[in-house]
Design goal:
By secondary structure, this protein is of the alpha/beta class. The protein contains 17 helices and 17 strands. Helix 15 packs across helix 16.
Length: 509
Protein backbone atom coordinates (compact mmCIF):
# COMPACT_ATOMS: atom_id res chain seq x y z
CA UNK A 1 0.00 0.00 0.00
CA UNK A 2 1.55 3.28 -1.09
CA UNK A 3 1.30 6.50 0.91
CA UNK A 4 0.81 9.69 -1.09
CA UNK A 5 2.71 12.68 0.21
CA UNK A 6 -0.08 15.07 -0.85
CA UNK A 7 -2.57 13.32 1.44
CA UNK A 8 -0.18 13.37 4.41
CA UNK A 9 0.51 17.03 3.86
CA UNK A 10 -3.22 17.85 3.65
CA UNK A 11 -3.91 16.02 6.96
CA UNK A 12 -1.00 17.79 8.70
CA UNK A 13 -2.17 21.18 7.40
CA UNK A 14 -5.66 20.55 8.79
CA UNK A 15 -4.32 19.46 12.18
CA UNK A 16 -1.97 22.47 12.40
CA UNK A 17 -4.77 24.88 11.46
CA UNK A 18 -7.02 23.42 14.17
CA UNK A 19 -4.19 23.59 16.72
CA UNK A 20 -3.63 27.28 16.01
CA UNK A 21 -7.34 28.06 16.50
CA UNK A 22 -7.34 26.46 19.95
CA UNK A 23 -4.14 28.15 21.07
CA UNK A 24 -4.56 30.73 23.87
CA UNK A 25 -1.81 33.06 24.98
CA UNK A 26 -1.76 33.78 28.71
CA UNK A 27 0.71 35.57 30.90
CA UNK A 28 1.71 33.53 33.94
CA UNK A 29 3.21 34.77 37.18
CA UNK A 30 4.32 33.36 40.51
CA UNK A 31 2.75 34.34 43.83
CA UNK A 32 5.48 35.86 46.01
CA UNK A 33 3.36 36.86 49.00
CA UNK A 34 -0.27 36.41 50.01
CA UNK A 35 -2.27 37.49 53.04
CA UNK A 36 -4.99 39.90 54.24
CA UNK A 37 -6.75 39.64 50.87
CA UNK A 38 -3.69 40.87 48.94
CA UNK A 39 -1.37 38.88 46.63
CA UNK A 40 1.96 40.09 45.23
CA UNK A 41 2.66 38.27 41.95
CA UNK A 42 6.02 38.20 40.18
CA UNK A 43 5.75 38.40 36.40
CA UNK A 44 2.43 39.08 34.63
CA UNK A 45 4.18 41.70 32.51
CA UNK A 46 1.16 41.74 30.15
CA UNK A 47 -1.38 42.46 32.92
CA UNK A 48 -3.67 45.47 32.49
CA UNK A 49 -4.94 47.73 35.24
CA UNK A 50 -8.24 46.40 36.66
CA UNK A 51 -7.73 43.06 34.84
CA UNK A 52 -9.12 39.89 36.37
CA UNK A 53 -6.34 37.52 37.47
CA UNK A 54 -7.06 33.80 37.88
CA UNK A 55 -5.39 32.25 40.96
CA UNK A 56 -7.03 28.84 40.52
CA UNK A 57 -9.31 27.14 43.08
CA UNK A 58 -12.12 29.33 41.69
CA UNK A 59 -10.55 32.49 43.19
CA UNK A 60 -10.14 35.61 41.10
CA UNK A 61 -8.30 38.85 41.82
CA UNK A 62 -8.06 42.33 40.35
CA UNK A 63 -4.71 43.81 39.31
CA UNK A 64 -4.36 47.24 40.92
CA UNK A 65 -0.62 47.90 41.43
CA UNK A 66 1.37 47.51 38.21
CA UNK A 67 5.00 47.74 39.30
CA UNK A 68 8.24 47.01 37.44
CA UNK A 69 8.59 43.35 38.42
CA UNK A 70 5.44 42.58 40.40
CA UNK A 71 1.70 43.09 40.25
CA UNK A 72 -0.31 43.82 43.40
CA UNK A 73 -3.68 42.07 43.26
CA UNK A 74 -6.70 42.27 45.55
CA UNK A 75 -8.48 38.94 45.99
CA UNK A 76 -12.22 38.54 45.48
CA UNK A 77 -12.37 35.50 47.74
CA UNK A 78 -10.62 33.80 50.66
CA UNK A 79 -6.84 33.57 50.46
CA UNK A 80 -6.60 30.31 52.47
CA UNK A 81 -6.10 28.11 49.40
CA UNK A 82 -3.45 30.31 47.78
CA UNK A 83 0.20 29.75 48.74
CA UNK A 84 3.55 31.28 47.88
CA UNK A 85 4.85 29.73 44.66
CA UNK A 86 1.40 29.16 43.16
CA UNK A 87 0.80 30.26 39.59
CA UNK A 88 -1.50 33.13 38.60
CA UNK A 89 -2.76 33.76 35.06
CA UNK A 90 -4.09 36.79 33.22
CA UNK A 91 -7.56 36.40 31.72
CA UNK A 92 -7.62 39.30 29.26
CA UNK A 93 -10.86 40.51 30.89
CA UNK A 94 -11.33 43.80 32.69
CA UNK A 95 -13.26 43.38 35.97
CA UNK A 96 -16.93 43.12 35.04
CA UNK A 97 -20.35 42.13 36.34
CA UNK A 98 -23.55 40.74 34.88
CA UNK A 99 -26.35 43.12 33.91
CA UNK A 100 -29.88 42.72 32.60
CA UNK A 101 -33.55 42.53 33.47
CA UNK A 102 -33.04 39.26 35.36
CA UNK A 103 -31.19 41.05 38.18
CA UNK A 104 -34.23 43.08 39.28
CA UNK A 105 -36.09 41.42 42.09
CA UNK A 106 -32.89 39.69 43.21
CA UNK A 107 -30.19 40.08 45.87
CA UNK A 108 -26.72 39.61 44.38
CA UNK A 109 -23.08 40.12 45.33
CA UNK A 110 -20.88 42.56 43.33
CA UNK A 111 -20.07 39.82 40.79
CA UNK A 112 -23.84 39.31 40.22
CA UNK A 113 -23.84 35.90 41.90
CA UNK A 114 -27.25 35.41 43.60
CA UNK A 115 -27.36 35.56 47.39
CA UNK A 116 -31.02 34.49 47.33
CA UNK A 117 -30.30 31.28 45.40
CA UNK A 118 -32.19 29.04 47.83
CA UNK A 119 -35.37 31.14 47.56
CA UNK A 120 -35.31 32.15 43.88
CA UNK A 121 -32.90 29.78 42.12
CA UNK A 122 -30.12 30.56 39.62
CA UNK A 123 -29.73 33.90 37.87
CA UNK A 124 -30.26 33.91 34.10
CA UNK A 125 -28.20 36.89 32.88
CA UNK A 126 -25.75 36.59 29.99
CA UNK A 127 -24.82 40.21 29.28
CA UNK A 128 -21.85 41.73 31.12
CA UNK A 129 -20.47 45.25 31.53
CA UNK A 130 -17.13 46.47 32.91
CA UNK A 131 -17.20 47.79 36.46
CA UNK A 132 -15.39 50.97 35.46
CA UNK A 133 -16.19 53.05 32.39
CA UNK A 134 -15.54 56.68 31.55
CA UNK A 135 -18.49 58.90 32.49
CA UNK A 136 -20.53 60.34 29.58
CA UNK A 137 -19.20 63.63 28.24
CA UNK A 138 -21.05 66.94 28.16
CA UNK A 139 -22.17 66.44 24.54
CA UNK A 140 -23.97 63.21 25.45
CA UNK A 141 -25.87 64.80 28.35
CA UNK A 142 -28.70 67.27 28.71
CA UNK A 143 -29.72 69.45 31.67
CA UNK A 144 -31.76 67.87 34.44
CA UNK A 145 -35.40 68.77 33.82
CA UNK A 146 -37.55 65.81 34.93
CA UNK A 147 -38.54 65.41 38.59
CA UNK A 148 -37.73 62.27 40.53
CA UNK A 149 -40.35 62.37 43.27
CA UNK A 150 -39.49 60.82 46.62
CA UNK A 151 -42.97 61.19 48.13
CA UNK A 152 -41.42 63.06 51.09
CA UNK A 153 -42.92 66.56 51.45
CA UNK A 154 -39.78 68.20 52.86
CA UNK A 155 -37.66 66.94 49.95
CA UNK A 156 -40.03 67.32 46.99
CA UNK A 157 -40.97 70.88 48.02
CA UNK A 158 -37.73 72.34 49.41
CA UNK A 159 -34.84 70.10 48.21
CA UNK A 160 -36.18 68.60 44.96
CA UNK A 161 -34.33 65.85 43.10
CA UNK A 162 -34.31 65.55 39.31
CA UNK A 163 -33.63 62.54 37.12
CA UNK A 164 -29.90 62.42 36.43
CA UNK A 165 -28.98 64.34 39.58
CA UNK A 166 -26.51 63.32 42.31
CA UNK A 167 -28.01 64.23 45.70
CA UNK A 168 -26.05 63.38 48.84
CA UNK A 169 -27.83 62.14 51.98
CA UNK A 170 -25.60 63.01 54.94
CA UNK A 171 -25.90 62.81 58.72
CA UNK A 172 -24.87 60.97 61.87
CA UNK A 173 -25.69 57.30 62.39
CA UNK A 174 -29.28 56.47 63.33
CA UNK A 175 -30.79 59.66 61.92
CA UNK A 176 -32.87 58.07 59.13
CA UNK A 177 -30.55 58.27 56.10
CA UNK A 178 -31.36 54.78 54.80
CA UNK A 179 -35.05 55.37 55.50
CA UNK A 180 -35.14 58.36 53.13
CA UNK A 181 -33.52 56.26 50.37
CA UNK A 182 -35.97 53.44 51.10
CA UNK A 183 -38.95 55.81 50.88
CA UNK A 184 -37.64 57.12 47.55
CA UNK A 185 -37.41 53.55 46.20
CA UNK A 186 -40.93 52.68 47.39
CA UNK A 187 -42.30 55.85 45.79
CA UNK A 188 -41.06 54.75 42.34
CA UNK A 189 -43.75 52.04 42.26
CA UNK A 190 -45.66 52.45 39.01
CA UNK A 191 -43.33 55.19 37.69
CA UNK A 192 -41.22 52.91 35.49
CA UNK A 193 -38.01 53.82 37.36
CA UNK A 194 -35.73 50.85 38.10
CA UNK A 195 -33.90 50.98 41.44
CA UNK A 196 -30.50 49.62 42.52
CA UNK A 197 -29.64 49.58 46.22
CA UNK A 198 -25.94 49.04 46.99
CA UNK A 199 -25.21 47.94 50.57
CA UNK A 200 -21.55 48.34 51.55
CA UNK A 201 -20.20 46.99 54.84
CA UNK A 202 -23.59 46.32 56.44
CA UNK A 203 -24.62 43.30 58.47
CA UNK A 204 -26.47 40.60 56.53
CA UNK A 205 -29.32 40.77 59.07
CA UNK A 206 -29.80 44.46 58.23
CA UNK A 207 -29.87 43.71 54.50
CA UNK A 208 -32.41 40.91 55.05
CA UNK A 209 -34.70 43.31 56.95
CA UNK A 210 -34.42 45.86 54.16
CA UNK A 211 -35.23 43.26 51.48
CA UNK A 212 -38.22 42.05 53.54
CA UNK A 213 -39.47 45.65 53.73
CA UNK A 214 -39.14 46.10 49.96
CA UNK A 215 -40.98 42.80 49.40
CA UNK A 216 -43.78 43.87 51.73
CA UNK A 217 -44.16 47.25 50.00
CA UNK A 218 -44.19 45.69 46.52
CA UNK A 219 -40.96 47.47 45.55
CA UNK A 220 -38.62 44.49 45.21
CA UNK A 221 -39.90 43.57 41.75
CA UNK A 222 -38.23 46.67 40.23
CA UNK A 223 -35.25 46.77 42.63
CA UNK A 224 -31.87 45.03 42.55
CA UNK A 225 -29.96 44.80 45.85
CA UNK A 226 -26.17 44.57 45.48
CA UNK A 227 -24.73 43.47 48.83
CA UNK A 228 -21.12 43.44 50.04
CA UNK A 229 -21.53 42.70 53.73
CA UNK A 230 -19.25 43.55 56.64
CA UNK A 231 -17.97 39.95 56.58
CA UNK A 232 -16.99 40.15 52.90
CA UNK A 233 -13.37 41.00 52.02
CA UNK A 234 -12.52 44.67 51.44
CA UNK A 235 -12.10 44.22 47.64
CA UNK A 236 -15.73 43.08 47.37
CA UNK A 237 -16.85 46.16 49.32
CA UNK A 238 -14.64 48.28 47.04
CA UNK A 239 -16.20 47.05 43.78
CA UNK A 240 -19.82 46.94 45.03
CA UNK A 241 -20.76 50.57 44.12
CA UNK A 242 -19.16 50.17 40.68
CA UNK A 243 -21.13 46.96 40.10
CA UNK A 244 -24.38 48.69 41.09
CA UNK A 245 -23.52 51.60 38.80
CA UNK A 246 -22.93 49.22 35.87
CA UNK A 247 -26.41 47.71 36.41
CA UNK A 248 -27.95 51.20 36.55
CA UNK A 249 -26.09 52.26 33.41
CA UNK A 250 -27.52 49.28 31.55
CA UNK A 251 -31.02 50.62 32.35
CA UNK A 252 -30.02 54.17 31.38
CA UNK A 253 -28.51 53.09 28.07
CA UNK A 254 -31.72 51.22 27.19
CA UNK A 255 -33.49 54.60 27.39
CA UNK A 256 -34.93 53.83 30.83
CA UNK A 257 -34.62 55.60 34.17
CA UNK A 258 -32.69 54.23 37.14
CA UNK A 259 -32.34 55.32 40.78
CA UNK A 260 -29.10 54.23 42.44
CA UNK A 261 -28.52 54.32 46.23
CA UNK A 262 -24.99 53.91 47.63
CA UNK A 263 -25.30 52.98 51.32
CA UNK A 264 -22.78 54.12 52.23
CA UNK A 265 -19.66 55.72 50.75
CA UNK A 266 -18.00 56.19 54.17
CA UNK A 267 -17.59 52.42 54.53
CA UNK A 268 -16.59 52.24 50.86
CA UNK A 269 -13.76 54.72 51.52
CA UNK A 270 -12.66 52.72 54.57
CA UNK A 271 -12.51 49.50 52.51
CA UNK A 272 -10.42 51.28 49.87
CA UNK A 273 -8.13 52.69 52.57
CA UNK A 274 -7.58 49.19 53.94
CA UNK A 275 -6.71 47.84 50.48
CA UNK A 276 -4.39 50.75 49.69
CA UNK A 277 -2.45 50.45 52.93
CA UNK A 278 -2.01 46.69 52.42
CA UNK A 279 -0.82 47.39 48.86
CA UNK A 280 1.72 49.78 50.47
CA UNK A 281 0.43 52.85 48.67
CA UNK A 282 1.49 56.08 50.42
CA UNK A 283 -1.16 57.32 52.89
CA UNK A 284 -2.45 60.89 53.00
CA UNK A 285 -4.92 62.72 55.23
CA UNK A 286 -6.53 60.42 57.83
CA UNK A 287 -4.46 57.60 56.24
CA UNK A 288 -6.68 57.65 53.12
CA UNK A 289 -4.74 57.31 49.84
CA UNK A 290 -4.21 60.36 47.66
CA UNK A 291 -6.73 59.23 45.04
CA UNK A 292 -9.71 58.86 47.39
CA UNK A 293 -11.38 61.94 45.84
CA UNK A 294 -10.93 60.47 42.36
CA UNK A 295 -12.38 57.16 43.62
CA UNK A 296 -15.75 58.76 44.38
CA UNK A 297 -15.76 61.37 41.61
CA UNK A 298 -15.33 58.81 38.83
CA UNK A 299 -18.18 56.82 40.39
CA UNK A 300 -20.66 59.67 40.88
CA UNK A 301 -19.89 61.40 37.56
CA UNK A 302 -21.47 58.41 35.82
CA UNK A 303 -24.92 59.59 36.98
CA UNK A 304 -26.41 61.59 34.11
CA UNK A 305 -29.47 62.62 32.16
CA UNK A 306 -28.65 61.55 28.60
CA UNK A 307 -29.44 63.62 25.52
CA UNK A 308 -32.32 62.70 23.20
CA UNK A 309 -29.80 61.38 20.66
CA UNK A 310 -28.46 58.96 23.30
CA UNK A 311 -31.91 57.62 24.24
CA UNK A 312 -32.87 60.23 26.89
CA UNK A 313 -32.34 57.73 29.72
CA UNK A 314 -31.23 58.81 33.17
CA UNK A 315 -29.24 57.51 36.12
CA UNK A 316 -29.91 59.30 39.42
CA UNK A 317 -27.49 58.74 42.31
CA UNK A 318 -28.30 59.06 46.01
CA UNK A 319 -24.99 58.51 47.81
CA UNK A 320 -25.11 58.26 51.61
CA UNK A 321 -22.28 59.49 53.86
CA UNK A 322 -22.12 59.12 57.64
CA UNK A 323 -20.74 61.94 59.78
CA UNK A 324 -19.23 61.65 63.25
CA UNK A 325 -20.83 63.89 65.89
CA UNK A 326 -22.21 66.16 63.16
CA UNK A 327 -18.75 66.93 61.75
CA UNK A 328 -19.82 68.16 58.31
CA UNK A 329 -16.27 69.34 57.52
CA UNK A 330 -14.54 65.94 57.82
CA UNK A 331 -12.49 64.59 54.91
CA UNK A 332 -14.89 62.17 53.18
CA UNK A 333 -18.06 64.29 53.76
CA UNK A 334 -16.48 67.43 52.24
CA UNK A 335 -15.14 65.40 49.31
CA UNK A 336 -18.54 63.98 48.42
CA UNK A 337 -20.34 67.29 49.05
CA UNK A 338 -18.06 68.94 46.48
CA UNK A 339 -18.77 66.20 43.91
CA UNK A 340 -22.57 66.08 44.24
CA UNK A 341 -25.30 68.50 43.11
CA UNK A 342 -26.62 69.13 46.61
CA UNK A 343 -27.17 67.45 49.94
CA UNK A 344 -29.95 66.43 52.31
CA UNK A 345 -28.59 67.02 55.82
CA UNK A 346 -30.12 65.01 58.67
CA UNK A 347 -29.56 66.37 62.17
CA UNK A 348 -29.49 64.30 65.37
CA UNK A 349 -31.04 67.12 67.41
CA UNK A 350 -34.11 67.28 65.18
CA UNK A 351 -34.39 63.49 65.19
CA UNK A 352 -34.42 63.35 68.99
CA UNK A 353 -36.95 66.20 69.11
CA UNK A 354 -39.35 63.99 67.16
CA UNK A 355 -39.07 65.63 63.74
CA UNK A 356 -39.09 62.76 61.25
CA UNK A 357 -37.59 62.94 58.71
CA UNK A 358 -34.98 64.96 60.64
CA UNK A 359 -34.01 67.18 57.68
CA UNK A 360 -32.28 70.46 58.42
CA UNK A 361 -33.84 72.54 55.63
CA UNK A 362 -31.38 75.40 56.16
CA UNK A 363 -28.25 73.29 55.58
CA UNK A 364 -29.79 71.19 52.83
CA UNK A 365 -29.68 72.30 49.20
CA UNK A 366 -30.48 71.08 45.71
CA UNK A 367 -28.43 72.83 43.04
CA UNK A 368 -30.34 71.61 39.99
CA UNK A 369 -33.53 69.99 41.25
CA UNK A 370 -35.65 73.16 41.16
CA UNK A 371 -35.31 73.08 37.37
CA UNK A 372 -37.10 69.73 37.46
CA UNK A 373 -39.86 70.80 39.85
CA UNK A 374 -43.42 71.07 38.59
CA UNK A 375 -44.79 74.61 38.53
CA UNK A 376 -47.45 73.89 41.16
CA UNK A 377 -44.80 72.53 43.55
CA UNK A 378 -42.67 75.64 42.98
CA UNK A 379 -45.70 77.80 43.76
CA UNK A 380 -46.29 76.20 47.17
CA UNK A 381 -42.68 75.34 48.03
CA UNK A 382 -40.94 78.62 47.20
CA UNK A 383 -41.88 80.17 50.55
CA UNK A 384 -41.23 77.02 52.55
CA UNK A 385 -37.46 77.43 53.05
CA UNK A 386 -37.80 81.13 53.92
CA UNK A 387 -40.57 80.48 56.45
CA UNK A 388 -38.61 77.71 58.14
CA UNK A 389 -35.36 79.70 58.13
CA UNK A 390 -37.15 82.63 59.81
CA UNK A 391 -38.75 80.28 62.31
CA UNK A 392 -35.42 78.69 63.31
CA UNK A 393 -33.85 82.13 63.77
CA UNK A 394 -36.70 83.47 65.94
CA UNK A 395 -36.96 80.15 67.80
CA UNK A 396 -33.39 80.53 69.02
CA UNK A 397 -34.13 84.13 70.07
CA UNK A 398 -37.35 83.14 71.87
CA UNK A 399 -35.46 80.69 74.09
CA UNK A 400 -34.07 83.65 76.04
CA UNK A 401 -37.60 84.28 77.36
CA UNK A 402 -37.86 87.85 76.11
CA UNK A 403 -41.23 89.51 75.50
CA UNK A 404 -42.17 88.93 71.88
CA UNK A 405 -44.10 91.33 69.67
CA UNK A 406 -47.12 90.22 67.69
CA UNK A 407 -45.25 89.76 64.37
CA UNK A 408 -42.65 87.54 66.00
CA UNK A 409 -45.36 85.45 67.63
CA UNK A 410 -47.02 85.00 64.23
CA UNK A 411 -43.72 83.83 62.68
CA UNK A 412 -43.19 81.35 65.51
CA UNK A 413 -46.77 80.06 65.27
CA UNK A 414 -46.50 79.67 61.48
CA UNK A 415 -43.13 77.88 61.82
CA UNK A 416 -44.47 75.43 64.39
CA UNK A 417 -47.29 74.48 62.03
CA UNK A 418 -44.88 74.12 59.08
CA UNK A 419 -42.70 71.76 61.13
CA UNK A 420 -45.75 69.65 62.00
CA UNK A 421 -46.91 69.56 58.37
CA UNK A 422 -43.49 68.32 57.23
CA UNK A 423 -43.48 65.41 59.67
CA UNK A 424 -44.12 62.17 57.82
CA UNK A 425 -44.11 58.52 58.95
CA UNK A 426 -41.73 56.13 57.15
CA UNK A 427 -42.89 54.18 54.12
CA UNK A 428 -45.85 56.49 53.60
CA UNK A 429 -44.88 58.44 50.47
CA UNK A 430 -47.38 61.10 49.37
CA UNK A 431 -48.74 61.78 45.92
CA UNK A 432 -47.55 65.11 44.47
CA UNK A 433 -51.07 66.59 44.33
CA UNK A 434 -51.68 65.62 47.98
CA UNK A 435 -48.43 67.36 48.94
CA UNK A 436 -49.51 70.50 47.07
CA UNK A 437 -52.88 70.60 48.90
CA UNK A 438 -51.29 70.36 52.36
CA UNK A 439 -48.40 72.73 51.62
CA UNK A 440 -50.78 75.28 50.06
CA UNK A 441 -52.83 75.25 53.27
CA UNK A 442 -49.71 75.59 55.43
CA UNK A 443 -47.76 78.23 53.48
CA UNK A 444 -50.84 80.42 52.89
CA UNK A 445 -51.54 80.47 56.67
CA UNK A 446 -54.86 78.61 56.34
CA UNK A 447 -53.81 76.42 59.28
CA UNK A 448 -52.95 79.37 61.54
CA UNK A 449 -56.08 78.86 63.66
CA UNK A 450 -55.68 75.07 63.87
CA UNK A 451 -53.98 73.95 67.11
CA UNK A 452 -50.44 72.63 66.53
CA UNK A 453 -51.31 69.35 68.25
CA UNK A 454 -54.11 68.73 65.71
CA UNK A 455 -52.10 69.35 62.51
CA UNK A 456 -51.12 65.67 62.12
CA UNK A 457 -54.82 64.68 62.31
CA UNK A 458 -56.15 67.52 60.15
CA UNK A 459 -53.75 67.11 57.17
CA UNK A 460 -54.95 63.67 55.94
CA UNK A 461 -58.60 64.64 56.58
CA UNK A 462 -58.11 67.79 54.49
CA UNK A 463 -56.63 65.79 51.59
CA UNK A 464 -59.54 63.34 51.67
CA UNK A 465 -62.06 66.22 51.82
CA UNK A 466 -60.59 67.94 48.72
CA UNK A 467 -60.53 64.65 46.79
CA UNK A 468 -64.15 63.89 47.73
CA UNK A 469 -65.59 67.37 47.14
CA UNK A 470 -63.56 68.43 44.10
CA UNK A 471 -62.21 65.42 42.17
CA UNK A 472 -62.16 67.54 39.00
CA UNK A 473 -59.74 69.97 40.71
CA UNK A 474 -57.29 67.24 41.71
CA UNK A 475 -57.46 65.69 38.23
CA UNK A 476 -56.82 69.12 36.69
CA UNK A 477 -53.79 69.69 38.93
CA UNK A 478 -52.38 66.28 38.08
CA UNK A 479 -52.65 66.98 34.34
CA UNK A 480 -51.78 70.69 34.17
CA UNK A 481 -49.14 70.63 36.96
CA UNK A 482 -49.89 74.28 37.73
CA UNK A 483 -52.06 76.20 40.24
CA UNK A 484 -53.99 78.85 38.34
CA UNK A 485 -55.50 81.85 40.15
CA UNK A 486 -58.92 80.18 39.86
CA UNK A 487 -57.54 76.93 41.32
CA UNK A 488 -55.95 78.82 44.23
CA UNK A 489 -59.21 80.62 45.05
CA UNK A 490 -61.20 77.40 44.86
CA UNK A 491 -58.68 75.47 46.96
CA UNK A 492 -58.67 78.24 49.60
CA UNK A 493 -62.48 78.11 49.78
CA UNK A 494 -62.42 74.31 50.13
CA UNK A 495 -59.90 74.53 52.99
CA UNK A 496 -61.96 77.14 54.87
CA UNK A 497 -65.15 75.09 54.39
CA UNK A 498 -63.36 71.98 55.62
CA UNK A 499 -62.18 73.81 58.76
CA UNK A 500 -65.71 74.94 59.59
CA UNK A 501 -67.07 71.42 59.18
CA UNK A 502 -64.18 69.99 61.18
CA UNK A 503 -64.87 72.39 64.06
CA UNK A 504 -68.58 71.46 64.03
CA UNK A 505 -67.54 67.81 64.29
CA UNK A 506 -65.04 68.55 67.07
CA UNK A 507 -66.55 71.63 68.85
CA UNK A 508 -64.01 71.48 71.70
CA UNK A 509 -61.10 72.22 69.32
Amino acid sequence: MSVRSEEVRAVLDDRLAAYKEELELTSTGIVLQVGDGIAQVYGLSEAMSQELIDFGHGIMGIALNLEEDTVGCVLLGPDDEISEGDQAHTTGLIAQTKVGEALFGRVVNPLAEPLDFEEKGPLEADETRPLEVIAPGVVKRQPVHEPLLTGIKAIDAAIPIGRGQRELIIGDRQTGKTQIALDAIVNQRGSGVKCVYVAVGQKMATIRRLVATLEREGAMEYTCVVAATASDPAPMQYIAPYAGCAIGEWVRDQGGHALLVYDDLSKHAQAYRQMSLLLRRPPGREAYPGDIFNLHSRLLERAAKMSDGEGAGSLTALPIVETQEGDFSAYIPTNVVSITDGQIYLESRLFHEGQRPAINIGMSVSRVGSDAQSKMMKQVGSRLKLDLASYREYEAFAQFGADLDEDTQKILAQGQRMVEVLKQPPLRPMDEVDQVIVLFAATRSHLADVPVADIAEVAPLLIKYVHDKAPDLTDSLRKAQVLSDEDQTRLADLIETFKREWRLQYPTQ
